[in-house]
Amino acid sequence: MMICPIVLSKRASRLSLAVPQLPFTSMMSIVEEHIGQIQNLTRVGMIHCLTSSGYTPREDMSNMAGGVTEGNGCCKSSNSCKEEHEPRIKLQDLSQPPHPILRLASLGQSRSLSYSVFHPWRIHNSYYSSCINEIEIRDLASKVLGGLPKFVKIVEVGPRDGLQNEKNIVPTFVKVELIRRLIASGLPVVEATSFVSPKWVPQLADAKDVMEAIRDIEGVRLPVLTPNLKGFEAAVANGAKEIAVFASASESFSKSNINCSIDESLARYREVTSAAEKCSILVRGYVSCVVGCPVEGVVPPLKVAYVARKLLEMGCSEISLGDTIGVGTPGTVIPMLEAVTTVVPVEKLAVHFHDTYGQSLSNILVSLQMGISTVDSSVAGLGGCPYAKGASGNVATEDVVYMLNGLGIKTNVDLGKLLGAGDFICKHLGRQSGSKAAIALSRATANASKL
Prior knowledge:
Layout: E1 5-6, H1 10-13, E2 19-20, H2 24-34, E3 46-51, E4 54-59, E5 68-69, E6 75-76, H3 81-84, E7 101-102, E8 105-106, E9 113-114, E10 117-118, H4 134-145, E11 153-156, H5 158-162, H6 172-184, E12 189-190, E13 193-194, H7 207-214, E14 224-225, H8 229-237, E15 242-248, H9 251-258, H10 262-278, E16 282-288, E17 292-293, E18 297-298, H11 301-313, E19 318-323, H12 330-340, E20 349-353, H13 360-369, E21 374-377, H14 397-406, H15 415-429, H16 436-450
Parallel strand pairs: 11-12, 11-21, 13-14, 14-15, 15-16, 16-19, 19-20, 20-21
Antiparallel strand pairs: 1-2, 3-4, 5-6, 7-10, 8-9, 17-18
Helix pairs in contact: 6-7, 6-15, 11-12, 12-13, 14-15
Catalytic activity: (3S)-3-hydroxy-3-methylglutaryl-CoA = acetoacetate + acetyl-CoA
Protein name: hydroxymethylglutaryl-CoA lyase
Family: Belongs to the HMG-CoA lyase family.
């Protein structure tokens, strides 16, 4: 006998399996053998739903008087779902044969039969029902998401880290307008620029002009990057109220990036943090290559913990852990965070992920689950690293906000205004946004305007 695959009815296809079609007489004999208690099988159709507690068959809605099927498969009427499905049929009297039991599903007058395969011990003591166990779902959500922070601070690094790798010089007025738009979206911290040598980063040669334009803006933190004491003095002279220093967890990357070893860079930053303390200026510390290095490969978590601890000891109020080349996954990020949190309080840590392999959001999520509540990101996914070829941009701020909104975590960021800021800079750069959320939402808006 040839068995041909069929698909269940439209109503059941979402919840049941595609199954082979058997002759009606064969199916009847199988069903009657295992469920002799049911006398009128052609009247009562059984559809098996997969819920958090296993398979729970429900009655065919077409055979229920006055029932209207909703999208979730539950019955909408004046009576409750529980009342609609009474009386229930308990399954504890079913035997457990060595093969799965076949159940009958009568699909209308055509008497075309289909069946689902399940094991009786999975539904022992269950009832026929289409209701979802909301308590179990809430318990599961609590286990998975219960440890997440209620508020996440987003540090926007687009104007500095996002633009520093652009080949074509972005005019100062565009940078200033971008910063203003980002501030207007509600972002609490916007990294404005960097006081580095124009020889090394030509894109940020206008740092003084940018600071002149934004120095009087209130209600937002506008840190700037300073690689040494000379850069710190220039930043303070131009109105900077908060600075950042950066060290690498990789010796090779440190030498290629700032032309000195890790310990030599830390010695430089002690001078900077000491001067900042005298001026009552906050210092943020960056650690780069916390997962991998373009030269050395894998970076041991203990090396990351060593650099992070040194930055904390010299007075950094916050330490951002950066996956500079974007090779991290939850499997490599978790051990790194475990090592760092043994020497630095978790409330003083931030994460900074590049999205080279598309792992940023998953890495952020596990970081949140481990207690991190500060996330660096770049509008429209701008960025890269001039000393790490192939590294793509930072995780897009729009994508981060979209995910956090979906988790019910507050950011105080207006996503609509943030999308506007991303659209502004992308139009100037002449390319599409690197944010998946921005692209999807812009398409949805465009489609809605055509209706």
